[in-house]
Design a protein that fits this description.
Largest sheet: 9 strands, antiparallel
Strand order of the largest sheet: 13-14-15-23-20-1-18-17-16
Radius of gyration: 23 Å
Number of strands: 24
Order of helices and strands: EEEEEEEEEEEEHHEHEEHEEHEEEEEEE
Distance between the termini: 9 Å
Number of helices: 5
Helix content: 10-25%
Shape: globular
Strand content: 25-35%
Structural class: alpha+beta
Amino acid sequence: MRSAGVFIYWLTISAAFVPLGYSKSLSRTVDESSNNNNNDAETCGWDDRDTCGGSYRDPALKPMQVSLRDGTTDIFYAYVASDIATFYNKTEGSMKVTETKFKGLMGKFINMGRKPISIHWKPGNPQQQSSYIAQVEPFGAAGTATFPGHHFTVTDVDNPNTVLDNFHVTKDNSLYVYNPFSSYEEAEKELTRAEMAEYKLQNDNLAFNKLYERFTGRQWLGLYGRKHPPRYPIWPATSFGQMHTVVTKETHLRELPPDPLARKVVPDIGDVSAIREELKKYKGPEETLTLNMVRNTSRMTYYSVPFPEVHHILEVALGMKLSQSTTKAGSLGGERTDDLTRTSRNSWISRNRSPVIDSIIRRSADLLQIDEAYFRRRAKDEEQLLPESTYPINERLQLVHYGVGQQYTPHHVRTLIAPTDFAIPPTYDGQPSRFATILLYLNEVEKGGETSFPRWMNGEHKDTLKVKPEIGKAVLFYNQLPDGNYDERSQHAAMPDPYMP
């Protein structure tokens, strides 16, 4: 059988636009007190969080004392990973974490200067030209996937031949800082009050990282004081093979609805009950659907989607133009194509494209324990749900096609402002960034085409975790940890389909 490559349907949920004092109706209650100077609030277990009167706090969040240069003190609830043996239901200390053979990591480049800078990757072969990575705004940051031994140069934006600094990537270090000032005191003399506030923010963040790394064993990749814990529930992780169950009213399609229903546009705002009632005729007789998700790692679960819905998405895809996929590293500069990193083609699908797409989004919202209203534009009378914005918290659905030999090398996904790859969010409060990702596979191939997680945590072997593409298989994984830090182990890659006719 001749391969057609792999079609993947992405639903990505961002943590953007959610203020610290968000509405309780957003989801089943999660802990608002964590990292918000209210550490005596009553907390509940996951199963009784609806009825206990308090809020849920992940048991892996542990209080960490923070003391900064200016005398600021705080209690920060940091995510401390459970002992690996407990994921196998074994006694703590009886197993050790086995790292995979993959040595890649996230590289974050921080600009402590008052002028923008450019970051370039310098290949080991002197015959090859340097590759532009990103422009970094003053007191901002940018990022990329990298490996120990990589060499990056920092240049003046206006004069690319002027090298300001060099970074040599080392094992287990993701943070690289360009600081034109020899001391904090020199920065105070040279910078304006507004600039000094931004400089101090990054300086405090580096000091916080030292405390965080000592406490948790991992680096802090966010921006302390601006990057907050996710205001959405994260399914608790206690063991491999753990089963999570969700009951939803969005039952599976039994058969595809005919035109024009299948192509009817579903309005974001207004009464859609008539459309939904009409679609119900093509669903099963059950009033509710029980979704069983099996936890394959400490951060990822599997579930399935029926063939009629997969078929509908493919029908929609056939009428769309797929464009070359792009990547982006920071909040400055445009998106770029990269023939070595990301060779797929993609397009975007709105929730209101059809009643079937709308139903899939509603089911996904139930899966994530978030009110479906947050996944669409909301009316004025819904402002109480999220006063600061009426926009959806999710990105549009991304349809990606990997043809024969195409791939997407190991990467992280970070931000809504730059919803492509490796991007570090801007420094303003909240740091909007990707919270969770759902992948839905729309077809199968004879060989290859897997989504790989090269940095997954386990206690048995050094092999990369690979998710085989199967029609209707869906994967949920989180891009953030419960304390708001970016999850380095969410780094993933789309493996090439090697079949050649």
